[in-house]
Design goal:
Layout: H1 2-17, H2 22-36, H3 42-54, H4 59-102, H5 106-137, H6 140-157, H7 161-175
Helix pairs in contact: 1-2, 1-4, 2-4, 2-5, 3-4
């Protein structure tokens, strides 16, 4: 029972302060799962994150379900998802009501605009941490080459990212150990 309360506490904290959507919540989930409660190692978290990104749907909910499941089975997954989503649902209802009334005020616009840099920093930290984990798992040259090829193929050639994800998974399965 204690571990279920820990899941509620961990994911409610993420749900309350996780502004910016799923990718911005990942460092917060990692802080809870790896640093605070030690439910998994950074490497295990990176593996779950890679799997979550390879599946369709919102990444934060997939990560929450995976961590909750790892800690306490299906019950942990359901409780974790509930704890993550309830603060957002309540907050959205309250904020949308207030925003409807006060959306033209300059202070409200300033508050919304001030949050954007924080989200960018969280995404940057996530990218940096994930890159360090990937480099630790394989050669830095393979990681750099895959990143460069992905940028060229997605941005310059215009190939849809899903094809690069599938190609990278196939490459990793065949050549990276």
């Amino acid at each position: 029972m204690k571990v279920l309360w820990e899941i509620v506490i961990a994911f409610m904290r993420v749900g309350v302060v996780g502004y910016g959507g799923g990718p911005a919540m990942i460092p917060l989930i990692e802080a809870e799962a790896v640093d605070h409660f030690s439910w998994m190692t950074a490497e295990q978290f990176a593996e779950v994150l890679a799997m979550a990104y390879s599946l369709p749907g919102p990444v934060a909910t997939k990560m929450t379900a995976a961590v909750g499941y790892r800690v306490s089975g299906y019950t942990g997954a359901v409780i974790g998802l509930f704890a993550l989503l309830v603060p957002s649902i309540i907050g959205m209802l309250l904020l949308l009501t207030a925003l409807r009334q006060y959306r033209d005020l300059e202070v409200v616009q300033g508050m919304i605009n001030a949050v954007y840099p924080v989200v960018v920093v969280l995404l940057g930290l996530l990218t940096f941490d994930t890159a360090l984990t990937a480099v630790g798992a394989s050669s830095i040259w393979i990681t750099a080459a895959l990143a460069a090829v992905s940028v060229v193929v997605i941005r310059l050639i215009g190939l849809h990212p899903v094809y690069m994800i599938v190609a990278a998974m196939a490459f990793g399965a065949a050549f990276v150990r």
